[in-house]
């Protein structure tokens, strides 16, 4: 059980990192340094962006649940 949670934890962490990096830059940070700031104001929140937000939140919830589950297994297994 712990091995399965560890695998899901690693996969969800990698996917969450990818999904966070796919988000469109909102401020004048590093995205505008590389030319991303020019197109940031051309369109509002699209369906793709909203779905990306939802998937990122779901990945974060799965990640947190895996951490809590592994902690409970470690606590009660000893």
UniProtKB/TrEMBL annotation:
Keywords: Cell membrane, Membrane, Protein transport, Translocation, Transmembrane, Transmembrane helix, Transport
Topological category with respect to the lipid bilayer: Multi-pass membrane protein
Molecular function per GO: protein-transporting ATPase activity
Subcellular locations according to the entry: Cell membrane
A GO BP annotation: protein secretion
Membrane spanning stretches: 7-23, 55-73
Pfam families, sorted: SecG
GO CC terms in record: plasma membrane
Principal subcellular localization: membrane
Transport found in the keyword field: yes
The family this protein is said to belong to: Belongs to the SecG family.
Record function comment: Involved in protein export. Participates in an early event of protein translocation.
Stored NCBIfam families: secG
Protein name per the record: Protein-export membrane protein SecG
Species whose genome carries this gene: Corynebacterium lujinxingii
């Amino acid at each position: 059980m712990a091995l399965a949670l560890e695998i899901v934890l690693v996969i969800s962490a990698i996917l969450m990192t990818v999904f966070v990096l796919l988000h469109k830059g909102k401020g004048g940070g590093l995205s505008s340094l590389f030319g991303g700031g020019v197109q940031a104001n051309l369109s509002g929140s699209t369906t793709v962006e909203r779905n990306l937000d939802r998937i990122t939140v779901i990945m974060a919830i799965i990640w947190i649940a895996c951490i809590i589950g592994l902690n409970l297994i470690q606590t009660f297994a000893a």
